[in-house]
Amino acid sequence: MSVTGVRFQLHDTPEALAEVVAARVLEAARRAIAARGRFVLVAAGGRTPLQVYARLARARLDGSRWLVLHGDERCLPVDDPARNSHAIAAAWLDPVALPPNNHLPIPAELGAETAARRYAELIAPLLPFDLVLLGMGEDGHTASLFPGHPMPEDEALTMAVHHAPKPPADRVSLTPRALAAGRETLVLVTGAGKREALARWRDGAGLPVARVAEAAGAEVLVDAAAWG
Ligand code: 6PG
C-alpha cells in the first residue's frame, strides 16, 4: 500500500505496532554502531511513541553509543512533565541510564527563537541522522509542522513555531529538510482519531506529514483503528 515514495504497513493493535518499531530501532542502532560507531536517533514527541520507549527501556542496549535528539519541543520549563524531553526521559532514558550527554533536548525553555538557533548548531554536524521517528496529529501535522503554517524554503534545520493549534502555542521544530534527512524514517499512526487525516493523506492532500514522509521515503506504520 503506497502513496508516492511512502509505504504503509498495517498492524492490528498499537501494541503490535510498538513491538515492531522497538525492534526496528534496535536493529537500526546495531547497524549504525557497526558502521559508524554511534547511533543518532531523532525521537518523536506526543503519546503514540511512548509504548515504543517503554519497550526500549526493557531492552539491553549500550546507551554510550546512542545520541537521542528531538524532532520538536514545547516551549515549557525544563522540568515540565508536558515537555517531550521529560516524557521520553521518564519512559525510557532514565530507566536505561543513558549517559546524560547522550540525550540532547531542545532548549525550548529559552524561548522558540533562541532554542531553534542553538539546536540548529548542535544538530548540523550530526546529519544525516540514522533514524527519524515521527508521529502524526489529527490535522495531519508532524513534529511541530502544522497545516497552514509557513514552511522555510531555505537551508534551515530548525524553526520557531508560534500560534500552534495544539497547545502550547510556542514550540520549536526541526524543519521538513532536517526531518527528511534520516537514513531511515518511520511514521507512527495509531487510533481512530487519526483516520480522517490518514484518509486525506492517502487521497493526496498536501499535509505536513505527507510532505516530510514523501521527501524522506518513509515507512508509515498504522494500526487498524487509524486505517479504518
Ligand atoms: C508534539 C508532537 C506532535 C505529535 C502529534 C501526535 O509535541 O505534540 O511532537 O507532533 O507527534 O501531535 O501526538 P499523539 O501521538 O499524542 O497523538
TrEMBL record:
Reaction catalysis annotation: 6-phospho-D-glucono-1,5-lactone + H2O = 6-phospho-D-gluconate + H(+)
Q: Which Pfam families match?
A: Glucosamine_iso (PF01182)
Q: Which residues form the Glucosamine/galactosamine-6-phosphate isomerase domain?
A: 13-216
Pathway assignment: Carbohydrate degradation; pentose phosphate pathway; D-ribulose 5-phosphate from D-glucose 6-phosphate (oxidative stage): step 2/3
Q: Which InterPro entries match?
A: 6-phosphogluconolactonase_DevB, 6PGL, Glc/Gal-6P_isomerase, NagB/RpiA_transferase-like
Q: Which UniProt keywords apply?
A: Hydrolase
Enzyme Commission (EC) number? 3.1.1.31
Membership in a protein family: Belongs to the glucosamine/galactosamine-6-phosphate isomerase family. 6-phosphogluconolactonase subfamily.
- NCBIfam families the record matches: pgl
Which purpose does this protein serve, as stated in its record? Hydrolysis of 6-phosphogluconolactone to 6-phosphogluconate.
Q: What is this protein called?
A: 6-phosphogluconolactonase
This protein's gene is called pgl
